[in-house]
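A brief tutorial aside. Many learners find it easier to grasp structure tokens once they have seen a single protein encoded end to end. The record that follows does exactly this for Mitochondrial phosphate carrier protein. Read the sequence first, then the structure, and try to relate runs of similar tokens to stretches of the chain.
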Amino acid sequence: MPLLFPSQDTLHDVFLPAVPFGRRSSPPQTQSNSVSSKRTPLQARTELYPTLSAVDDAKNKANALSAEAAKEFEKASAAAQAKAGKIELYSSKYYAACTFGGLLACGLTHTAVTPLDLVKCRRQVDSKMYTGNFQAWGKIGRAEGFRGVYTGWSPTFFGYSAQGAFKYGGYEFFKKFYSDLAGAENAAKYKTSIFLVASASAEFIADIALCPFEAVKVRMQTTLPPFAKGTFDGISQITAKEGFGGLYKGLYPLWGRQIPYTMMKFASFETIVGMIYDRLPGQKSDYGKGAQTAVSFTGGYLAGILCAIVSHPADVMVSKLNANRQAGEGFGAAMGRIYKDIGFGGLWNGLPVRIVMIGTLTGLQWMIYDYFKIFMGLPTTGGAAPPEKR
């Protein structure tokens, strides 16, 4: 009954792929070799082995570098904490650390996105100047070189470093101050109101520090060629022509832009981060440094999108006033004249660019700020409030 049993060649063809690679003996030279030599879906693609090995090597090296970086971070963090001494929550050392963290967060990030800010400001002043970001950078690069793309970086760095210091340090101070005034029960019940009032108070002061540098930055970015060589040259030129008040003629619209922006930035960040931790398994303290800073970046980016939308009309006005306000012209008159020229639609020029810029900025700022707090042995912002140590 030969038809009831498969032939030897058939069995060979079926079971050959299951033989481990490297242990397969050379099949006899038969007619079935042409069939059995074809790769089946179960056979490994041996030509990919070197690629897979290279990927594994790269992963191992990356893991080793990551572990080494984490070790160096821990060493540097321990040294910094030993030098600073124990930092109690809500102590003067705590507010000083938050102030320096804010300086780093805002100064570095705003300076990094100067090319985006440059195009945004120029398009706000003249919407027909460029058709798009890449076209703008190409045109600026050809006309002014690579340095031209970073026009205004110096006043940006000084101004937003000062603003970040007062904003973040002030926010931590006023949040505790208003919480104590309200009492523990009301502070928990009306925590969003506490966030809003604390951030508005901090930004009111921070903008006084920012305003002179913002005036120089906007003028450098919106005049061709730039009216000054750098920050202090710009300050001296403005004060020589317009007096000290020339540095602060954009203060009211700056408050109008920055205070709602910061209120949205801090209150929405705290709310979003709280919602994230509420939906994650376990508690905030269960997550490591990397996970907590990732939550900070996510919450900051989402908060930044809301900030950009809320504050954009005032941002346009700041750019217009610093660039086009006439000598001796009153604030209200200048606002009315500019609005008549650009209309309601003009208040939204450059919004998509600003959403990208502010979303990225805000996410990175919160990540840097909270990473610095971790570096100094402090809890990150948002989520469950840390217990007060007495």
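Self-check: Residues 49-84 form the longest helix (36 residues). If you spotted this yourself, you are ready for the next section.
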